[in-house]
Task: structure prediction
Amino acid sequence: MPAAERIADPSREDAGLLRFLTCGSVDDGKSTLIGRLLLDTRSILADALTAIERTSRRRGLERVDLSLLTDGLQAEREQGITIDVAYRYFSTGRRKYIIADAPGHEQYTRNMVTAASTADLAIILVDARKGLLTQTRRHSTLAHLVGIPELVVAVNKMDLVGFSREVFDRIAAEYRDFAGRLGLREVRFVPMSALDGDMVVERGDRLGWYEGPTLLEILEAAPASGARPEERFRFPVQWVCRPHTAEHHDFRGYMGRVESGRIAPGDRVVVLPSGSVSRVRRVEVQGEARAEAVSQQSVTLLLEDDVDVGRGDLLVKLGEEPVPTRELTATVCWLGEAPLTRARRYLVRHATREVRAVLADVAHRLDVNTSEELPAEELAMNDIGRVTFRLAQPICPDPYVENRATGAFIVVDEATNDTVGAGMIG
Amino acid sequence: MPETNAARALSHLDWLEAEAIHVLREVAGQCHSAALLFSGGKDSVCLLRLAEKAFRPGRFPFPLLHVDTGHNYPEVIAFRDRRAAELGERLVVRSVEDSIASGRVVLAHPGESRNKHQSVTLLDAIAELELDACIGGARRDEEKARAKERVFSFRDELGQWDPKRQRPELWSLYNARIRRGENIRAFPISNWTELDVWQYIARERLELPSIYFAHEREVVRRGGALVPVTPLTPPRPGERVERVSVRFRTVGDITCTAPVESTARTVEEIVAETATTTVTERGATRLDDQTSDASMEQRKKEGYF
Result:
């Protein structure tokens, strides 16, 4: 059934939402791949297609240049660069997709880290003629560092190597070797021609030797966003609701999103960092009681006891408490134009809590091309390194590898209010 | 196809809803004086339901604000007022008409679209009400300038958006810190598409202004679009007035919003039509975005939403 009919069919299954990232440069066919996915899932509407057909003709091209679909802003065209991450959307009727399209250029580590932070899956594009490049290693290292659970290596431009199985097998073997050294667990490989569409949405008939799934089949089967109910319950409090009305005189609801795990009435919880213990009396949304709340749901929790809870506090289950700390050691990607130094004052935002911070130590800087650790005193923009901050008040972090929500923080420059760093704890 | 863990995940609408509620609560938690822009249009109708889920049984921690161009369909204005009253929330209206009367807005000609002039009235309202944040219903799928805009979008003292100086936005950690006079525009439904909006309206059984549903209307065909015949947009000499069954996909300034031919009279019929449409929302309906490839980007730099 075509996607459009499935969307309109109310009895269809909903396999949730998947956020993925495409890594590679225009030369690898990244824009063409995105264009192909949009076109073959019928997510491009006629007027948008007409517009790129017109532009393709004007530029003297023989066929429609699908990469024009991801053409950027006027400011970018003027400077001939891609400034920023763009988000694009399509649906198969079964699942909704959010693509983070990050520029591939070397100095844009910050963009890739930004795009990767919310991605469930990364597609690493490799040009079949060129094999693994420095940029392939950089993108893979970053994807791994930012904890993207699923990695797909798309060996593109198979049409230019005669759809050769040997070329594909050689690249896959070389990548497996590199992935093993990096500590990457699960990697999938798919040969394709984004230009012609082979193995993207349709199988085509020129890669008969490949028996694995198409790229879209891989996307359709990947675990959806937030499908991690086995994790520990973490609930950063965003807002406290105290209506003080006649009807809701003593109402006190703690509002936030379940970042991981699940919670139900009767569960014993600890308020952090204070350590007060209580029990969940009710889980509700807009006044309506719920039997439970699971990872990614935004809800309101009512407790049995009158404990002190405010924005910035973290609710967890009794026995699963993270340890409060005022010393924060993390892998930090520096995003600011001014370097990370001891001279400046920073704010660390962890979940809903914001605390003052100063730099205590830089252990080393990471060369993302070679994974080599280099000595460093500061971090400049696009640098990644091991850093320790001293905090004015405690936070209650989890290791990033265990929890991407409570294991992450951002650094804000107190003088400029800019977001200047991204940290992964542990 | 293997189901893996997918079956245990939230449905796409539940996920989008939870994200939007999270954004609304972050605005409440981080900003001191916000307003939610409510026009009576479908996107802002969704925002109101999301705000109910975010803050009830409490009141919204911000008023509703409408920048009225004075060129709105009366059905939409009546709906706006009724909806605000039903919710028991405060509605503040500031009008482009007043900005024209005070000389803050000068029209090139009397019939000019007032769409872009909303920016002046909005910036004046932000200054007058001392707002540090405005919550809007813009979506990234609408347009390519929006595709690159943050969920929490920083604007300088003049309300300008600078695509090159956007703050990196990682995980769900938003940074709303600003200096006095600066402003945050927050977009809780950034990740929604037009279809998501209609599916949400259907699921939540949200009420909408009547002009979203198919009705008979006098129109002329002009440049591939249907232009409604109104006192503000009379037919030009030689144009043939027809009665056509139409609905609006977006409601805005009468002079720049065109309806599409449709017989969809229910939300379910609109969902079906949206899933199979072949024309983008703005392509079909916004007469102002077709003027130039970069017109949205340009307006945003001038303080537009």
Notes: The longest strand of chain B covers residues 215-222. Chain B touches chain A through 74 residues (CB under 8 Å).
